[in-house]
Amino acid sequence: MATIYEVSKLAGVSLATVSRVLNKNTPVKEETRLKVLAAMEQLGYQPNSVAQSLASNRSNSIGIVVPELNGPFFGTLLSDIENQFRQAGKHVIIAAGHSDEKLEQESISFLQSRNCDALILHVEAVSDDYLVELMQKKVRFVLINRFVAPLYDRCITLNNQHGGYLATRHILEHGHTHIGYISGPMWKHDADQRYKGHVRALTEFGIEPSEQLVYEGDYHESSGAAGAQVLLQSNPSITALVCANDEMAAGAMTAAREAGRTLPDDLSIMGFDNVNFSHYTFPKLTTIDYPVGGMGEMAAQLILKCVYQQSVDTIQTVFEPRLVERDSIKNV
Amino acid sequence: MATIYEVSKLAGVSLATVSRVLNKNTPVKEETRLKVLAAMEQLGYQPNSVAQSLASNRSNSIGIVVPELNGPFFGTLLSDIENQFRQAGKHVIIAAGHSDEKLEQESISFLQSRNCDALILHVEAVSDDYLVELMQKKVRFVLINRFVAPLYDRCITLNNQHGGYLATRHILEHGHTHIGYISGPMWKHDADQRYKGHVRALTEFGIEPSEQLVYEGDYHESSGAAGAQVLLQSNPSITALVCANDEMAAGAMTAAREAGRTLPDDLSIMGFDNVNFSHYTFPKLTTIDYPVGGMGEMAAQLILKCVYQQSVDTIQTVFEPRLVERDSIKNV
DNA sequence: TAGTATGATGTAAGCGCTTTCATTTGTAAC
DNA sequence: GTTACAAATGAAAGCGCTTACATCATACTA
């Protein structure tokens, strides 16, 4: 592999000049520039990004922590983030946090030791204090799907409560009054907010929220199935089930059918997230769209702006969910 | 951030000694080792991986090119690869090739410029010759889901033909004789092989393969729907549909229902891949399991062995598909 | 006791770049 | 032809580490 030194020799200029045409940060006479470019071409020169990083103290890499790498939700997120950065000549390093405090912290320090210029964090188990400390240590990062007040300007969030509200309101508008709710783990902020939205909608329609009608799941398919089974058995009068995400909704569909219900006629089911498989279910799932893609892009933009000083379009930090009507909801 | 220099000063030893306790590659007296470790602890020392890379000419990073970052298939692949490397203290840099020759090449040289120690490639558009050239340039890489003869020892493949055979044989064993086939893009090696397996099974059962019964899709859901629509309309006697992947099978289900068929009674549907949403469909999809996870792990192992000289369990390069019976196939 | 092998540690030269500061060159004003 | 100033370029010092080689202490052999 040719180095900058060989290029400089061939072009008859100094190292510094080659570096300058590379970085375009200092004017170089057009004539010399062309000589240098020709030399690079001839040698098939490729800058060594590791040496660049060491010398400039910038790695042009962004670390990302997400709970899981697989799963429809994070795939989309990663894909959109990668896209943005790729266009800017940056690259992403990805680590999985598995919703575990220790693993999340490990992932973060792993990425820091990799000299990432910035981090994008979708973390759930780590405390707010830990994140605030991180900021105080001058670590540059953006938070996705989490709001921490002292970090308000680096949080990209979804209005989860409004999403939960929209979901249940839609069901109520179809005349349902006996509505089961399968929540996510309540210690997760988004699960809590979605549930709050659900309660708000019920209240607005004059229905008393009841603990009997709530099952706390873990966002996985199997807990959706378990939840549906439990709720339908103990409350046979239920005509609709609101699930805090699509995976659990899919599980609930299976369990509901096994409990003898015909979908959607005997039971309406609502999802949340609008992940890419949600129209593979039968009946096709009515759900709340979570604009993951947009949020990922926005996180990338925020970093491009704050860390790399690039000018970007307006920054938006709060995103709004949207109802996606398909076939899983029927009038009661 | 503390450097190795400060650690050496505090511990009262030389730079080299600190480096040695860090790398564990040269014996250091236990007593000194402890002194050094204590100094590191006290300073909160974290090695600078960029400097390490530059000095050692190893970046401890592995580049991965996949067609897409989202999608159930690649999510699983990435997840398993990341896991393996993470445990070994390596990290992965991911790029999307989008099944496009130019983009795939760009991704590869992007990762090379990032000084990856090795690459894992799931590429489809780039030519065999290009890959052979890459090998000749001493680029270290492993190929997933692709066989190129001169690179035989670095290809991790699935026996796609056998998978295609298993799929169709299973349908035939259920008494079907009018079987439609929705293939992937025939220029892709796996699509071609799966189809060959299909034909082999038909022949074995004494059925003449007919072009009328084949629709060439693109592996996406929509083409599965289109394929089902076309085939069922032009060949109403079809009682089973074999799809070259699960996405298209999901699309086919929707279209079949729209064409008035009841599933699985009026029409049996077979998938391929066993992606994670395949049991969200209704009826749950019978399919061919593609052991992505295992293959990703194996690719990682191969690199750990050849590039990082770690001893690993046996290396397996050809994987076998396996039938997964669910509910989408009925006797005719 | 001298001689030699062995293990532990130190010295210093890079790895391939960026960047500060100094120098040279070119241009315009006098 | 000088002088003054700006633009272009060069020289060289790092960035934080690894590693070949040199050195030194220690233990063992004869």
Write a compact overview of the structure shown.
Chains A, B: One of its GO terms (molecular function) is transcription cis-regulatory region binding. The structure is a homodimer of 332-residue chains. Chain A contains 12 helices and 12 strands.
Description:
Chains A, B: GO terms for molecular function: DNA-binding transcription factor activity; transcription cis-regulatory region binding. Chains A, B: InterPro entries: HTH_LacI (IPR000843), LacI/GalR-like_sensor (IPR046335), Lambda_DNA-bd_dom_sf (IPR010982), Peripla_BP_I (IPR028082). Chains A, B: Residues 2-56 form the HTH lacI-type domain. 2 copies of one chain form a homodimer. Chain A folds into 3 domains: 4-47, lambda repressor-like DNA-binding domains (434 Repressor (Amino-terminal Domain), Orthogonal Bundle), CATH 1.10.260; 58-159 and 292-321, Response regulator (Rossmann fold, 3-Layer(aba) Sandwich), CATH 3.40.50.2300; 160-289, Rossmann fold (3-Layer(aba) Sandwich), CATH 3.40.50.2300. The first copy, chain A, is elongated. Chain A is 45% helix and 14% strand. In chain A, helix 8 (160-173) packs parallel to helix 9 (189-204). Chain A has helices at residues 4-11, 15-23, 30-43, 49-56, 72-87, 101-113, 128-136, 160-173, 189-204, 221-234, 246-258, 292-306, and strands spanning 61-66, 91-96, 118-121, 141-144, 155-158, 179-183, 214-216, 240-243, 268-270, 287-289, 318-319, 322-324. Chain A is α/β, with parallel strands linked by helices and 332 residues long. The first copy, chain A, has a 6-stranded parallel beta sheet with strand order 2-1-3-4-5-11, sandwiched between helices. In chain A, strands 7-6-8-9 form a 4-stranded parallel beta sheet, sandwiched between helices. In chain A, strands 10-12 form a two-stranded antiparallel ribbon. At the A-B interface, helix 4, helix 5, strand 2, helix 6 and helix 11 of A face helix 4, helix 5, strand 2, helix 6 and helix 11 of B.
